[in-house]
Structure formats: structure tokens, C-alpha cells
Amino acid sequence: MTHRQIVTVLSGLMLGMFLAALDQMVVSSALRTIADDLHGLTAQAWVTTAYLVAGTIATPLYGKLSDIHGRRPVYLWAIVLFAVGSLLCGFATSIHQLAAFRAVQGIGGGGLMSLAMTIIADITSPRERGRYQGYITAVFAGSSVAGPLVGGVFAERSTLLGLDGWRWIFLINVPLAALAVVVILRVLRIPHKPVRHRLDRGGAVALAVGIVPLLLVAEQGRGWGWGSPRALTLCAVGLAGLLVFVLVERRMGDAALLPLRLFRIKAFRLGAALHFVVGIPMFGAMALLPLYLQLAQGMTPVNAGLASLPIVVANVVATIAVGRMMSRTGKFKVHLVAGIGSLTAGMAVFATLREDSPLWYVSIGMLFVGAGLGAAMQTITTLAQSDVPPGDMGAATASVNFFRSNGGTVGTAMFFSILFSLAGPRIGEGLAEAREEPSFRQLEAEPANAGALEGVLRPDGGLNLEDSAFLRTVDTQVAQPFLDGYVSAMQAVFLTGAVVALLAFVIAAWRVPDTTLSSE
Q1: From CA 238, how far away is CA 209, in angstroms rounded?
Q2: Residue 338 has what pLDDT?
Q3: pLDDT digits (tens, 9 = 90+) for 99-145
């Protein structure tokens, strides 16, 4: 295909990608407001995790379905599912109901992400993919700018046309999805050579049985107890499900949902592993950073979105620069290693953030993270696709996206689990220390402060951290132990992310071969 034909196809893909990317950014920036309104701050990770879990399980199915039936009809089906999930989310009445409807969204979103990358691989050479994947990154950059602003505007409106302002975050997706369907029908016309496989339904069920229990433990382990009978039982079920999945995939052969023969290809194997490992700090940091800016820095959702612009700028610049250099030289390892190294440095900066850290210091960490992701994500995908036969491109691209989504789900669940496991005890310690001062006890007993803390301080001495809205109303001195506890816990979480990113850096530097991409 000519450059003009490729860009025409990309215009349709970019609109579908924008739909999913914008939603993730909007929800991330407004999640604290949504969680406070639905009284589920500690359960807010479910809203993100449910989306990622559903998308993770659906992603390999999309790859196989698109190999069998063609990219366009499957891509359209993904858009429709995403719109239905968005409509349901707009009328959710509890945090857990919202999480369930987000899962419906995730089933559609998993196809929007993976199929776009598959279609790019269909119509470009390995060397040119980095150049055109830059267009996709531009979509993410645009959604990163627009998402927090749109999310902030809606989240700060108490009502709009008779509904809570935040509900329009989801309802706005419905007309956008309708527009995407019209554009896809007009421009996404690429030849399809059907692959005659039966659908691996057994593999899909086994995969769900293997993945969901393990992710439930990652999310709920802190509340249940990591060694509790419930957690151990779910771990056993999950491991058994994964074992059955491997056996089913081996029996299905070429028709497997995730063909095991792909793992004989070293480049694919490394790409899948790096997608998983890098996905942990990437998704975890993107979920936690807005919470830091709003809780610790006291920003509104809109201001938190604007403060995150350094990530966007660095991401766009790095993606465009790396894409052009890969297209010119065919080399990608140097960019991969540098990108993951930059991500590691950014997470290390975040691990040193305090409640009073200046914004310029936070921005340094954002620049490192944005540049790192811009350089690393496209090169990891290129690595995974580089030696895969064309007939397996759909399944292969869906598979590496599956591993990235798994990493993101684990990262989000793990980050929030560590955060609230540490925040409660550390806030309790800070309160006990502060109460040794008579002036603090006097402030705490004032009617306005006592009323705000009434639902937070339990009679048994514990803390109810479901709603953080009280921090906006209590005296700053009374709020300080809470802020210190949250920020201290966030430091530990970001440090964990830095360690995981460092592991990815070692894998990339040590194991990835320094090869030259083909221009055909």
C-alpha cells in the first residue's frame, strides 16, 4: 500500500483507538470524584481492574476472530460492545456495579487496542511499523491532553442535564462510538485471506478460570489476608486453570487461542515478557499519579490533568523520534533499552515525592516516564512482531497485548493494594503521634473538624478510608497526618514500580538481540 492509502486506513483506526484511550484518561482523572460519590475510595481499583481483566481475556479472542473473519467486522463489533458498556456505566449506582459495567467496556476496548496494532502490522514492513505506530501514539497523546480536561470538567459539575456530572464521562462515548462506526465502514477496506480455524472456546474458558481468580487475589488479598483460606483457594483454582489452558492450547495446535508454537520464536517470547513486566509500572503509575496530585498536592481533576502534560509531551517527542530512527536504520534495541531505563528513572523520582514536593520536581519524573514509554512501547511491539509469520500476525499481536494487559491489571491491583495496606497503619501512627500535642486535640475536637471526621474515625479505633472528601473541609493541621500517611504509602508503591522496571531493563539489555529490521 502507498503512504496515502496507509494513512487513510489509519484515520479509521485512530478514531477507534481515540475512543478507548480517551475513556481511560477521562476515568483516571475523575476516579477520585467518582469513588467519593459512590462511597468506594478503597475499592476504586476495581473500576480500572475490571476493565483491564475483561480486556485481557478478550484480547486473544479478537486476534483469532480477526484472523478467521477479517479485521473490519470484528473491529466494528468491538466498538459496539464498548458503546454498550459506556451506556451502562453512565447509570451505575454503586462502585461495584460500575466495575461490572466497566468489564463490558473492557471487552470492547481490548479489541480496539490490539486490532489496530494488528492491522498496522498487516499493511507495513517491520522497519516502517515504528513510523506508523507513531500515529497511534499521537492518538494517546491527544487523549492524554483532552482526557483529564474533559474528565475534570465533568467531575467538577455536580449535575448536568439532570444527571451527576461524572456520568457524562461515560455517556459521551456513545455518540463518539457512532461516529467511529461510520468512519470505519467508509475507510477500513483491506483485503482479507480467511484462516480456516475453529474457535478455541475451551481455551478461552480455561484462560478466564486461570486469570480471574489470581487477579481477584491481587486486588483483595490485603483485605482477606494473603494466607487466608479464600486467597489460597483462589490461587489454587487460578493455577489449575492456567495448567488446563496450556494443555488445551497444546491439543488445539494451529487453532489455539494463543498458539504455543509462537513461544518458540525468541523475539516473540521476549516481547511478550517485556510487555508484561513493563505493563506493571506503566499502568500502576498512570493510575496512582492522578491520586497523588489530587490528594497530596490538593489539585482539582482539571489541574491534575494539566499538570500531567510533561508525560504527554515527552511521550510524543520520543515516539516520533524513535519511529523515524527505526525506519531509517532498522535498529531498535538501543531505543528499547534507553526507554526502559528512562521509565525506571522516572519511577525512582516518584518514589522520593513528598507532600510538599514542588511541581517542577514532579515534572522531572513525568518527563522520564513519558519519554521512556514513548521509546519502549513501540519497540517492544516491533520486537514481538519482527519474526512472526503473516498468517499468525493477528494471534501474535493479540497475545503480546494480552501480556501487557495482564501486566497492567497486576500493576494496578498491586499498586492500590500496597497503597491501602500501608496507608491505614501509617495514618493511624501519625494520628497517635499528633494527638500527643494538646493543640492538635483541641483542633480535632472543634465542631467542624469533628463532624468531618465522624465517618472516618471508627469507634474501634480503626479508619474508614472509603471517602477522601473530608480532607477538603478539615483544618490543614488535622489533615496533615492523613496526607503524610498517604504520601508515605505512595513512596513505597512507586519504589516497587521502580524495582519492577529495573527488572525489565535487565531483560532488555541482556537478552534482546541487536538485530536489524527487514524493510519488506
Answers
A1: 6
A2: 94
A3: 889 889 988 888 887 788 778 777 777 667 666 766 776 676 667 66
Farthest CA pair distance, the chain: 77
By the 8 A CB rule, do 60 and 257 touch? Answer: yes
- What is the b/e burial string over 491-513, where b = at least 16 CB atoms within 10 angstroms of the residue's CB? bbbbebbbebbbbbbebbeeebe
Task: Provide the grid cell at 272.
Answer: 511478550
DSSP state of 91: T
Alpha-carbon distance 388 to 515, whole Å?
15
> How buried is residue 4: exposed, middle or buried, by Cβ count under 10 Å (0-12/13-18/19+)?
exposed
CB 190 within 8 A of CB 119: yes
What's the full length of the chain, in residues? Answer: 520
Which pairs from 87-94 meet CB under 8 Å and 24+ separation? 87/170, 87/171, 87/174, 89/170, 90/163, 90/167, 90/168, 90/170, 90/171, 91/167, 92/38, 93/38, 94/38, 94/40
pLDDT at position 177, please? Answer: 87
Q: Grid coordinates in use for 308?
A: 500531567
Residue 192 has a pLDDT of 64
Grid cell locating 344: 525506571
β-pair type (163-164, 159-160): antiparallel
Q: How far apart are the first and last CA of the chain?
A: 12
Q: CA-CA distance, 320 to 374, in Å (whole number)?
A: 8
The conformational region for residue 161 under phi > 0 = left, psi -120 to 50 = alpha, else beta, is: left
Phi, psi for residue 457 in degrees, rounded to 5 = -90, 110
Among the listed ranges 17-31, 160-174, 398-412, which one has the minimum average pLDDT value?
17-31
Answer whether CATH 1.20.1250.20 is correct for domain 3-200+257-423+492-511. yes
Banded pLDDT at 194 (limits 50, 70, 90)? low
Give the model confidence (pLDDT) of 220-254 as tens digits. Answer: 676 677 788 888 999 999 999 999 988 988 888 77
Question: In whole angstroms, what is the distance from residue 214 CA to residue 242 CA?
Answer: 10
> Which DSSP symbol is given to 263?
G
Share of the chain above pLDDT 70, in %: 86
Report the amino acid identity of residue 239: L
CA–CA distance, 81 with 77 (Å, rounded to integer): 6
Domain layout of the chain by residue ranges: 3-200+257-423+492-511, 201-256, 424-490
